[in-house]
Amino acid sequence: MGIAMKSVFAANLVGAESQLPKPPYPPSPVIRGITWHWETYRTAAPGSDLWPTTWGPDDQLYAAWGDGGGFGGSDSDGRVSMGFARIEGGPTNFRGVNINGGKDPEHPASFPRKGKTGGMLFVDGTLYASVNLQDGSWPNVNHRLAWSTNAGATWTQADWVFPKGAGNYQPAKFLNFGQNYAGVPQRLDGFVYLYGPRQPARAGEETHLFLARVRKRHLRERAAYEFFAGRGPEGKPLWSSDEARTQPVFTDPNGVALGTVAYDPGIKRFLLTSFHTGPGQLGVFDAPEPWGPWTTVAYSEDWGRMGRSGEGLSCDFPQKWMSPDGLTLWSIFSVYGAGAKKGINAHDRFNLVKATLDVIPQTGRRQLRR
């Protein structure tokens, strides 16, 4: 290739790169990057999506899916609107069991025709889910808290909702810690945290995440919920029962799809994953607190070679499957659409892959803080 052709090629490359979305936050001072080990990639439950998880008191993972038959089922075989499953074993030898709904379940479906959840949480032996009631055209839907005292076999729903309406808070994802909500840092103990957007005027316009908290013992009482309302002196969070005062804890002008946050006790950081639209457009961020300040670990445009066409739905890092040093993770993720059928072909199913974090040594972190 001649010098002139090289110059043209370089100019075109720079132009293409300049059109790519930019990460919304600076690089992490703690984590240099993340490596996805695609040779470990496994799938199950074709036709079922979403797959939020939580760690139960019996040392099993619990999960939920939407619009399919769950483990052993398909898009049509055992199909329910929402089902619940138990994931036994470890990431390399897991076994999925349908608890409520789906193909050959232990118990009949509680949500056979309507209902979806992107967030689940075990707290003191009770399993909670934030349920999109699907009682309108998305995103104009009500959300209701549901809970199960028998590990997902049967469900009870609250008699109140987070109401639909443009600008209203839409609960989506619980902040998960350890087994049965153990291992919460002392400064955060006693509360449950719940992330979600405000209802946009049109689907796909979400660019902010908001945060609510509630004392564990009052989780089923709507009046007990408080909302993050910014930072006060010394950066301490402010909380208000007035939803109108809520301030975003995370913003990405390129898009925010069901941001998921998990605590990594090995490195004492909160990890946030969010697709900024398509299945290959995944951002991974970290922070010292559930409300930030966030920094960027990775910001992909072709994650899993799936590109921008379609939807990235969720990407969880269950703490049960984190290594003691916090550097080896396993991601359970869900993607949908044309792009998701390319690359690793993860469209509309349960997906599992190993990831490792590259952490900056402590000496380097001290230099960064100077």
Report on this model:
The protein has 370 residues and is mainly beta. It has a single domain (23-369), classed as Glycosyl hydrolase domain, family 43 (Tachylectin-2, Chain A, 5 Propeller). It is built from two helices and 22 strands. The protein is globular and about 55 Å long. The model is unreliable at 1-17 and 366-370 (pLDDT under 50).
Tag the structure with descriptive keywords.
6-stranded antiparallel sheet, disordered N terminus, 2 helices, Tachylectin-2, Chain A, mainly beta, 4-stranded antiparallel sheet, 370 residues
What string gives the helices and strands in order? HEEEEEEEEEEEEEEEEEEEEEEH
Number of helices: 2
**CATH fold-level topology:** Tachylectin-2, Chain A
Q: Which residues form runs of ≥5 with pLDDT under 50?
A: 1-17, 366-370
Helix content: under 10%
The CATH level-2 architecture is identified as 5 Propeller
Rounded mean pLDDT is: 93
- Number of DSSP strand runs: 22
Structural class: mainly beta
When the domains are counted, the total is 1
Most strands sheet: 6 strands, antiparallel
Q: How would the global form be characterised? A: globular
Radius of gyration: 20 Å
**Could you give the distance between the termini?**
46 Å
